[in-house]
């Protein structure tokens, strides 16, 4: 789209026999400079290396800040966030059951989503011979889905309620209406949307240092070449495009797509 | 001389906040007097102590805080820290009062930092550069403490610790 818009500049910078009011070296030069920079930006935004560097820098910072944010929320409100951590490790960075994922999008932009990880730790049970892993605890508790527990290896369920042992009839199942308690449902999603719709994500992007990426290599590539800085009435679009190609490739390697 | 590594900018902000809340008469120290300790408990509590204080603070407005993260910039003299304050009260107007007060106190970046720097009880090993409100959540019924309402306020503070000539903490 940028290149399409910039193509309108071609007639202003390449005009052997101008008609009308526009016959000015300034117009040709400014058009050439804009045309050059538009080409560089278009090239950079399609450069795999630039895109990867940008995405890596920004995503890494967001991932770190979002993780810290949820950890702090979980330490402050363990009843609401214990489900997105391994058992009894609410707010522990190493016990998270969530992670952010990034999905490539057009140009240098990318989308962020999250996924829940499988729990690997054993469900705490003070007085049980058989121990279990509730693998999908994060996603099931977050969704507030009722959970049906049925005997698989034994003939009946046996469990304790308030210190009393309950023996269920043979083959009978138990339904837990709100696994994880009433406080957990949609709490992670709520904080996720709060982080990404408020100032926190902006702060994270600013902190990422992505500007450095633009300030160094990109800025060097965007610098107007001496040929365009020289006063002329006509500039060749082909020559400018090839100069933009060369500068972009120099800035971010030859892996242009 | 060995530096005191127990010092923490978050604790300095908490000290400043408590002094300001008292001065604004938003909290009354007498409401938090503990007979067991023989003095008033500051109801701005680190999250690690929150379970022990639950009974004492039952029904009383209070604030739980925790550090979200801390990082140094390329200029390693400047530290950037985010602190989460969760305000609890059974009365929505009390929460709004604290939230609005904290917004007023901490939204002004350099000027908010200047206020903290001027605070007479501030440890002289710290110099704050900027403090601002990074996020405020709506007031809603707390899932954590039944019967309470709560709101989150996140502050972002940039500060330096006073260092020696080699850049180590004093």
Please explain how this structure is put together.
- The complex is a heterodimer of chains A (257) and B (170).
- Chain A is mainly alpha-helical and 257 residues long.
- Chain A has helices at residues 2-7, 10-13, 25-46, 48-76, 78-81, 137-143, 187-197, 199-207, 210-222, 226-229, 237-252, and strands spanning 98-104, 110-116, 147-149, 158-161, 164-167, 174-176.
- Chain A is built from eleven helices and six strands.
- Chain A is rod-shaped and about 95 Å long.
- The relative contact order of chain A is 0.18.
- The model of chain A has no long low-confidence stretch (mean pLDDT 85).
- Chain B has helices at residues 9-23, 50-53, 92-106, 110-118; strands at 33-34, 39-40, 44-46, 62-72, 79-89, 126-136, 140-141, 149-161.
- In chain B, strand 1 (33-34) and strand 2 form a beta hairpin.
- The longest helix of chain B is centred in the first third of the chain and has 15 residues, at 9-23.
- The A-B interface holds A 64-65, 68-69, 71-73, 75-80, 182-184, 187, 194, 198-200, 203, 207, 209 and B 47-48, 50, 64, 66-69, 71, 74, 80, 82, 84, 86, 134-135, 137, 142-144, 152, 154, 156.
Summarize model confidence as the mean pLDDT of chain A: 85
Secondary-structure element order of chain A, N to C? HHHHHEEHEEEEHHHHH
Radius of gyration of chain A: 30 Å
Strand content of chain A: 5-15%
Give the beta-strand count of chain B: 8
* Category by helix and strand content of chain A: mainly alpha
The first-to-last residue Cα distance of chain B is: 8 Å
Q: Structural class, from secondary structure content of chain B?
A: alpha+beta
> What is the percent of helical residues of chain A?
40-55%
Number of DSSP helical runs of chain B: 4
- Compute the gyration radius of chain B: what is it? 17 Å
Mean pLDDT of chain B: 93
Low-pLDDT parts of chain B are none
- Work out the number of β strands of chain A: 6
State the distance separating the first and last CA atoms of chain A.
Answer: 16 Å
Name the pair of protein chains with the most residues at their interface, and give those residue counts: A-B, 24 and 23 residues
Q: Main β-sheet of chain A: number of strands, strand sense, barrel status?
A: 2 strands, antiparallel
Main sheet makeup of chain B: 6 strands, mixed
